[in-house]
Each structure stands twice: as C-alpha cells, then as structure tokens.
Automatic annotation (TrEMBL):
Family statement drawn from the similarity comment of this UniProt entry: Belongs to the XFP family.
Protein name as it appears in the record: Phosphoketolase family protein
Residues in Xylulose 5-phosphate/Fructose 6-phosphate phosphoketolase C-terminal domain copies: 603-813
Gene Ontology terms, MF aspect: aldehyde-lyase activity; magnesium ion binding
GO terms under biological process: carbohydrate metabolic process
Domain Xylulose 5-phosphate/Fructose 6-phosphate phosphoketolase N-terminal: 22-383
InterPro entries tied to this protein: THDP-binding, Transketo_C/PFOR_II, Xul5P/Fru6P_PKetolase, Xul5P/Fru6P_PKetolase_C, Xul5P/Fru6P_PKetolase_CS, Xul5P/Fru6P_PKetolase_N, Xul5P/Fru6P_PKetolase_ThDP_BS
Species whose genome carries this gene: Agromyces tardus
Pfam families: XFP, XFP_C, XFP_N
Cofactor(s) of this protein: thiamine diphosphate
Gene3D superfamilies, sorted: 3.40.50.920, 3.40.50.970
C-alpha cells in the first residue's frame, strides 16, 4: 500500500484545474439527492420512464432522508475543492443512517461500479443500486464497511470526529472532512472529541475539518446546539480551539445558490488555512503557540428539497423529514403523486442520459483515480506497512530466584514493565505508524519505557514543569476512554498500528464502541476490495485482583464477557500469567490483523514462572500442563492422556495462577499421595468448542489435558460463568467447578480480595478436599481442612488489624518439593491414611 499513498502528488498536478462553476456543483447535488430518494423508495422505474405506479415502490420503506441533502451538499463541494487543488481528502460521515447519500456519491464517482461490477454506471445498474438499499440481501441504510470510502460505522452516533482525528495522525497532506450531525453532537464521545486537535502536529499529521451540520432536529425533538444563540455556539467552538465559519440558508424557499457560494468560500478558507498552518509550523511557529483550526457550521433545513407539507403537516425543516417523509406511497395515491413530483423536481432528464449514465458534464466535478473520496486508499486500502516486529528474547527475564530457591522459578518481576521495554523497541522501529493510546495510565500501567523513545503528543500550551510532552510525541493520553479508542480506531482503519492500555474496570466505558468495531471487522471480512485492517489491541492492567486500594468501583473483569460474545473469527482473549508470556503475547497480537485482541496482565510485582523459550511455546500452544507445579508421577507431556490425576487444578490469569500453584503446593505438602495436575490457560478461546471458535482445542486434546473424569477446579480471572459458557460442551463439564470474581469487592488487601471471592489458595485446596470422591473422609483430612480454614480466618484478622496481609502470604515462594505423588486411586478408593 505504500506506493498507493505516494501517488497523489502526480495526480494532483494533473487534476488541478480552473475553477469549477457552482452551477455544476448544484447539478451534482441534485443528482445525489435524486439517487438518495430513489434508494429509499424505488424498486423499479429508476429513470422515471413513465409515471410512478404503486408496484414501482418498495414494500417496506426503510431509510433516512432528513440528513441526506446536507451530506450530498458537502460531498459535492468537497469534490470541487479536490478537483481544483488536488488535495487528498477523505469524508467521515457522522450523521446516523447517512447511507443513501454516501452510496449515491460513490456511484456518481464511478467507484461503486468498479468495486461492485453488477451495479453498473448505467440504467440497469441504477435499478440495482436502488433495489439493494435496505432490502433483503442488500446493503445497510447507514455508512458501513460495504460503503466505499467509509471508515465510520453510522449505526451508532458519537464517533465520527474521533475517527477523523485518528485518521489524520501521521498522514501529512491529508484532509479529513468530518460531517457531524447535530443529533450526534449531543453525545458524550463527540463532545470529548472537540479537543482532538490537541494531538495533531501540522507538520507531520494531516488536518481535520469539522463540519457541524445543524439541520435542527433529531428523530422527534429539536437538537441542543441548533437552539442556542449563534454567539454562544461560536463561543463554544472558539473555546474548543476552532475558528468557525457560519454557512446558513435554504429556508423558506431561498435560492440554494446562496448556500453554494457561502460553502464554497468557507471550504476555500479552510483549505488555505491548512496550508498556512503547515507553512507556519515548518517555520517554527508551532513550537510555542497552538494553532486555531478552522471549522464550518452548516445550517440548512432538515430534509431540504423534499416535500414541504404532507397531509397538512410541515415536513421539510422539521423532524418529520427524519426518515421517510411519504410513508404510505403504495396505499395513498396522493403520496405517490407527491413522490413523483419530488423526484422530477431534480430534473433527472438533465442528470442522466437515455442509457442511465450520469451526464457527461459531471465528469468535470469527479476527481481522478484515488483522489476520489470513495476510492481513497486511506479509507479502503488496508495496512500501509507491515510491522517489523522486534524479537522478545533480549527483553525476557530469568524466572529463577537469585537465592537458588524455587527450582528455577518464582523470581519477582513486573509483567507490564517488561512488556513496556519491548513496546518501546517497536515504536523506535516504527516512528510513523505505531502509536500508544491510553486514558492517562501509561505510566500507571508500568509502560514508562516508551518515554525513552518518544513523548506524549501535545499541541496545546507547554509549561516548564511538563514531563514527557512534545509536539512530535507518539503517545496520546486523555481521560476519555471513548476518545482514545476512537482515535485508535481511526488510526487502524487507515492502515496503521496501535495499542490501547486501560484500567480493566473502566474499559467497560467503550463496550459499545468495541461492539461496533467488532461488527465492522466481521462485515469487512467478506468485502474483497477492503484491505486487511491492523488488529485492535487492548492491554488491560490495574485489574480486578490488584485494585484493592481503589475499591469496589475499580473491580470488574466483565469486559471479557462482552468480548467473547462476538464472532469467533474476530475476537481473541489472552491471560498471560507472567512477564515472559506477556512478551510473547504482545508480539503475537501485533502480528495479527482483522482481530480484536484483549490482553489482561497485572502490573504489580509477582512471581515469574516460565523462561523465555517456555513462554513462547506456551503462548503458541495457548494452554498447557505445568508438571513442575503438580505432582503427577509418570506424566508425559507428549501424551497427557497416558496418566489420570486425582484432580486437575486449572488457572487463567496471573493472580489466579499464583493461587492455583500455591494450592497445589499445599496439597503436595500435606497430602503427598494425592496426584494433582496443574493446567495453565493463556489463550482463553482454547477452551471453546472448535466448532464455535477456530482456536478451540479438539475434543481429544482437551480431554487429554483436562481428563474425561477427574474433578476439575478452575481458578479464573473473571466471572466464573464465562468458563462454563465456553466449556459446556466438553466431556468433563459436569465435574467442572470454577472460582473467580463473584462481585465481592472493597478497599482491602490483595489476599483478602481473594478471600472475599473464594479464590484464595486455601479455598482452592479445600475445594479439592470436598470434590475428590472419598478424600474428605480419609483419616487426618478433616484436621488439615480445619487448619486451612483457620489460616484463612487468621489472614483476614491480620489484615483487618494491621492493614496488610501477613508475611506467610506476602512472603510465600514456590517450592517444587519432591514433585511426585503416589496417586490417590479415586476409582478404587483410598488405600491408607494420607500424610
């Protein structure tokens, strides 16, 4: 894709032309409006070869007219600017359900017929264009992956401006024109986006042109910004760092040429300003002063050029034009006649030839090749440059404690700090297509090594006491998860790579954004002209089990439940148990595309389990038995089914892994004849049935690891029901018992958090006692269970008295012991007393 992005200079020089007359812009606008209405209503008779009949109308009228004329108006005018200047521009369509307009203009561009050859640029293709819209087996009513040139899913409002700012990053010379509907402008995410220019560098980034379209109404109410005095609106935009230009007209039958002249002037001023800003920045002005960016306020009637009055009710300029102004066209002859008049008001005989092809005069307003907004490689082209990923070996840490204990395992380390060093190396190798986004938590989540190679991007005022702020920084932080995710999405959808790091509990803020992006990826998989999209990667730290100091509000692992409900081809969830597995996981997720990868890893010091090579192999496998943590004699890694342990303790997540290993050690020390297998899961989707997820283990492999009959305890990072959801089809599911977060949280110590949710090592060991048949009745076992109950109670009492966990918890270290149990013999019953 690199070559495609370098072509615009040649095309621009060839495309530059004399001024395009505004009468031609008006002609394009009329054509796009005609096509928009036709898509909503017409099943046939696309060129109005005869009077409209009821059977020419679709049986179900689905679509949104109200926003379409404004979107078409902006598109026509942007085409004029591109033709005259040769400036690469993409169009971000914010208003919901603006699909008719975006598809209409892509067809007029010629792009639609190139990408969908059956929808030809003639009368036959026009029939197909109209029929497919909001029709079974057709296309959606909003700007979607199927819409050429789109990077913004119009099915949900609020994300257009943040997508635009993400698209502009590292795209010098590109203009991202973003039309913001005034209904959309009421959303929280959009309001957070107004300051997105704080992260733009006029020299190294593109420019964003917000176009706030105030048509006055949403579905059934007036919009907030349309009903405030103009002075307040200007003050609001100026306060957000813009210099607004007001374009207003089209009311009460006003000549549209007045609006055309205003909008053309406003766009020329904006594009001139962008060029001046780049020149000023190159001359050093940007070093001390933040620029003021242009924006446009476009005030036109909702449903402009549509029916003014229907059944005695005002429609144009009111919310009644929002969706389908004439709703009973098949049944009501007056509505049918109004539709006929409406369509003919655009003078289609001037817009299309006898063969249905757009009038040749429109060629002068059609940009060439990839300068067409619907054909822009920035929007359709996929990955700009594959990543050259650093190796991980040099960043790995030795899991062996310095004092020689632990059998070569159990050294203390911080997983995210180690991963941060690798991420810094990645960003050093990719200074213009990898970025890190986060809500003011990069340092908190121990990723500070990235500041050895870059700074935070900052275009606002600088203060002598600032740390890690620079005009050219590549880390972007703002206290809005919406803004961070949206900018990252815009960055990814235009072919670059990145990572969003966040506290685990608050990533829920973007649940809906994740849903929309996952749906986009799923739909885009079936569109062959869309290039591969770099994966959306999350690193969630400061997680549920180590938010003991912040309390209940910060304790929620439920994002995983949201993620796994999406299409299996799209989502992945990784729970690396230590630093080296996190390294291997991070390298893996950056090597994927068309995915959402969720990685959960703690930032606190804890014991380390695998050396570098073991970690790489473990991540590749996704799940594995850790023989050194259990005591299963004769266990063969090549044939796990060759032996059957008395119990399997599985774990997923760093803190649950510590507790599972500690529980296995308790059992090994106090009940050495009991055979325990410890299984760690790093790729959560390995648990799912392979018929449901491509990462799912085949049943024979699953049964070999987890057994077909042994009691199976699972220490899980998140909500226990999720493990049951993933494994309900597995052979041994009836013997599965899961411990995880049970919505019990508070401000307390780390171990007491585990105690509250019955995920601590003593509870796990006690579960083994109660779930291995016959074990609880063996001599001496009741006394051991009482000791473990007492230890739990004593640990809580110590924490509540001293404010910290006791030393036997905080100072616990892994001891491999003898590592060889004798076997309890579950099938035959106990043979003698346990030691």
């Amino acid at each position: 894709m690199g070559g495609a992005h370098a072509r615009h200079d040649d095309e621009a020089s060839g495309a530059a032309a004399a001024s395009v007359p505004l009468e031609l812009v008006d002609t394009w606008w009329r054509a796009a409006n005609y096509l928009s209405v036709g898509q909503i209503y017409l099943l046939r008779n696309a060129l109005l070869d005869g009077p409209l009949r009821a059977d020419d109308i679709k049986p179900r009228l689905l679509g949104h007219w109200g926003t379409s004329p404004g979107l078409n108006l902006v598109y026509a005018h942007l085409n004029r600017v591109i033709v005259e200047r040769g400036t690469p521009t993409i169009y971000v369509c914010g208003p919901g359900h603006g699909g008719p307009a975006m598809v209409a203009n892509a067809w007029l561009d010629g792009t639609y017929s190139e990408l969908f050859p059956k929808v030809t640029l003639d009368g036959e293709g026009l029939e197909r264009l109209f029929r497919q819209f909001s029709f079974p087996g057709g296309i959606p009513s909003h700007a979607a992956p199927e819409t050429p040139g789109s990077i913004n899913e119009g099915g949900e409002l609020g994300y257009s401006l943040m997508h635009a700012y993400g698209a502009a990053l590292d795209n010098p010379g590109l203009v991202v024109a973003c039309v913001i509907g005034d209904g959309e402008a009421e959303t929280g995410p959009l309001n957070a986006s107004w300051r997105g220019h704080t992260f733009l560098n006029p020299t190294t980034d593109g420019a964003v042109l917000p176009i706030l379209h105030l048509n006055g109404f949403k579905i059934a109410n007036p919009t907030l910004l349309a009903r405030i005095p103009e002075s307040e609106l200007v003050a609001f935009l100026r306060g957000n760092g813009y210099e607004p230009t007001i374009v207003s007209g089209g009311f009460d039958g006003e000549d549209p040429m007045i609006v055309h002249a205003q909008l053309a002037s406003a766009l020329d001023m904006a594009y001139d300003r962008f060029a001046d800003m780049r020149a000023d920045a190159a001359a050093g002005a940007f070093a001390k002063d933040a620029p003021r960016w242009p924006c446009i306020v476009l005030r036109t009637p909702k449903g402009w050029t549509g029916p003014r009055v229907v059944d005695g009710v005002q429609v144009e300029g009111t919310f009644h034009s929002h969706q389908v102004p004439l709703a009973e066209v098949r049944e009501n002859s007056e509505h049918l006649a109004q539709l006929d008049t409406w369509l003919r008001s655009y003078r289609p005989d001037e817009l299309f030839g006898d063969d249905g092809r757009p009038s040749a005069e429109l060629d002068a307003l059609r940009p060439r090749g990839e300068l067409r907004m619907s054909a822009s490689p920035h929007a359709n082209g996929g990955i700009r440059r594959p990543l050259d990923l650093p190796g991980t070996a040099e960043f790995g840490i030795d899991p062996a404690p310095a004092d020689g204990t632990g059998g070569g395992r159990g050294a203390i380390g911080e997983a995210t700090r180690v991963a941060g060093s690798w991420l810094a190396a990645l960003m050093r190798e990719h200074p213009d297509d990898v970025r890190l986004f986060g809500p003011d938590e990069v340092l908190s989540n121990r990723l500070g090594a990235v500041f050895d190679v870059t700074e935070r991007a900052w275009a606002a005022q600088l203060h002598p006491l600032d740390e890690h702020l620079a005009r050219e920084g590549r880390v972007i932080e703002a206290l809005s998860e919406h803004l961070m995710q949206g900018m990252l999405e815009g960055y990814l959808l235009t072919g670059r790579h990145g990572l969003l790091t966040s506290y685990e509990a608050f990533i829920h803020i973007v649940d809906s954004m994740f849903n929309q992006h996952a749906k986009w990826l799923d739909a885009a998989r079936d569109i062959d002209w869309r290039g591969d999209i770099p994966s959306l990667n999350y690193l969630l730290s400061s997680h549920v089990w180590r938010q003991d100091h912040n309390g209940f509000s910060h304790q929620d692992p439920g994002f995983l439940n949201v993620v796994v409900n999406k299409k299996a081809e799209v989502v992945r969830v990784y729970l690396p148990p230590d630093a080296n597995t996190l390294l291997a996981t991070m390298r893996h997720v950056f090597d994927t595309h068309n995915r959402v990868n969720v990685v959960v890893a703690g930032k606190q010091p804890q014991q380390q389990w695998l050396d570098h090579d073991e970690a790489v192999a473990h991540v590749e496998a996704g799940v594995g038995v850790w023989p050194w943590a259990g005591n299963e004699p004769g266990f063969d890694p090549a044939d796990p089914a060759a032996s059957v342990p008395d119990v399997v303790i599985a774990c997923a997540g760093d803190v649950p892994t510590v507790e599972a290993i500690a529980a296995a050690q308790l059992l090994r020390e106090r009940m050495p004849q009991l055979t325990v297998r410890v299984v760690n899961v790093v790729d959560l989707m390995r648990l799912q049935d392979p018929r449901e997820h491509p990462h799912g283990l085949p049943d024979l492999e699953f049964d070999a690891i987890f057994t077909r009959s042994s009691p199976l305890l699972f220490a899980f990072h998140g909500y226990p029901t999720l493990i049951h959801q993933l494994t309900y089809r597995r052979t041994n599911h009836d013997n599965l018992h899961v411990r995880g977060f049970n919505e019990r949280g508070t401000t307390t110590t780390p171990f007491d958090m585990l105690h509250l949710n019955d995920l601590d090592r003593y509870r796990l060991a006690l579960d083994v006692v109660h779930r291995v048949p016959g074990l609880a009745e063996r001599p001496g076992v009741a006394e051991i269970a009482d000791e473990w109950h007492a230890a739990r109670a004593e640990a809580r009492a110590h924490a509540y008295e001293h404010g910290e966990d006791p030393e036997w918890i905080t100072g616990w270290r892994f001891d491999p012991g003898t590592g060889a149990g004798a076997g309890f013999g579950v099938a035959d019953g106990p043979a003698g007393p346990l030691e």
